[in-house]
Amino acid sequence: MALVLVLVLGGAGLLALRGSRYGTRARLASAYGAHIACSCHFIAGRPLPDCRHDFEPGMGLVTLSLDAERHSVTARVIPLASTTATFHHGQGCVLESWR
Length: 99
Prior knowledge:
3 helices; globular; 23% strand
């Protein structure tokens, strides 16, 4: 019973946090990180770890993952936000819409 209570309270806390200014900042950070890293990797041809050098200060919580087959980079601020940017020839890196 205690485990269920902890899970329910934790889930409610996470939902409240996602809707707060911290959740908004996390979504913005993930979008910025995905777009910068996608452009850095697929347009400039740099390795993904090197692309973190292009981030603004304070972006340490943003993690990056590469999907070379889809030509996309996903940036996450776990557990608050996740955004993917996909490279399209002629368009550059385009952010997928937020859910």
